[in-house]
């Protein structure tokens, strides 16, 4: 049974764990599998159905595990395969599923495949990676790395460059080579045989590059350019994905889930990737809505939020996949800043209400919601104050390149403070005490000082906590088919502060409405909503039923009403 056959994942909620920062059981300052096992009860209480683990394979950790040196083992930093088997059994025992994060576009430069490939131009694995001669004594083309600088590194031993869209320690695999595709498919079969329930596939829409690796259109002042038109949604990507799903899942019984991470994917392309008839993926992570506040040329150039633009972006995706395919729904992950600081209001007076309001808006939509560790608590960005606070190579490389180019350290730090991936990687805040209960050792990343009041312990049983609100949203999704299958109609789409939409099914309708600002607002809703009952609110004393078409919304007031 391929993942397309079963649609259990349409009513599921997925929780992403970044193991390095989740829970440390052996006091080395890094999260590990033992820590996850200890916290499964917390996740079961939250109500999530699937756990997605960011990579836990052996890795030099240049990109915190997204540089894999052995796909069939567990990095000692996190534990062992035997501990993994215990974790998987415990997850299944609790009625949840486990998704592995498969880094398919590239390996570590310390993977045996690359060590062989770089050993000689005539090595059988030479063509497993993308090697090219220099061009006019320079890089083969003008492609830039996502992590600053060129996407090519010269290899002295064999006198050629190799391609790496990310760090030089992350050489891109050549998916045009059937042996590479087979090797990746065998790895997926190996993990499925071990009992896992699916995969999140890292930058999977980058695996097919444009023929001839042509130059990207130049940008004045930039020697290297991130060549999205030359490697996003490339010529053979659909063919490779359909082949992989067929070879890996085709003859296998079970209920699986596959999600492809796809920077730059368009709604039209996503219809193709997630159309069940094409047998490629269940859903994709698109990046449009998490780019609306960034300069297209520089993610660290923060433009501020225009709510109408954000609404339009998510509605575009709701519309595109309304009849064919399926949306993932997310605000956060290990690469994104904390949503309450980004799109909400992390002032202590509005922090909780805005975190709940943003959760209400997202979880009321059509698609599969993904909750990133700590998002269910309303964890905020970290108060970075110096370059030394940053550990993510993307951030460190960006800071270095800006300071070298312009010397403008203030601008570099301002961009990192708002947008750095480090914001999502500070330790999970379990309690108010030492290191937020994350580790008994020295944490690898600093713990946010606000853990003294912002933590799981203070929210776990509190009925008005952000955690409790996520529990309710997840419960509603499990109980109300209209939240899974109902049509979505935007309301007040042009309003710069109110976010409202309806969900409709033949016999019922739901109204989701939120005030995304501090100023109270009076809004008019259609007469059809009179008598609608409150399913969920985020403030005390929210009226239980709508008795008039006029709603008085307080600051960051968010509500779900059910009519009919
Ligand atoms: O991220 C790919 C991606 O979206 C990059 O754009 C990344 O978000 C970065 O912010 C560039 O702006 C995936 C993983 O999620 C990320 O953690 C890895 O660093 C990357 O691929 C390489 O494996």
Automatic annotation (TrEMBL):
Family designation: Belongs to the glycosyl hydrolase 13 family.
One Pfam assignment: Alpha-amylase
PANTHER family associated with the record: ALPHA-AMYLASE FAMILY MEMBER, NEUTRAL AND BASIC AMINO ACID TRANSPORT PROTEIN RBAT
Protein name: Glucohydrolase
GO BP term, pick one: oligosaccharide catabolic process
Keyword terms: Glycosidase, Hydrolase, Isomerase
Ion transport among keywords: no
Domain Glycosyl hydrolase family 13 catalytic: 16-425
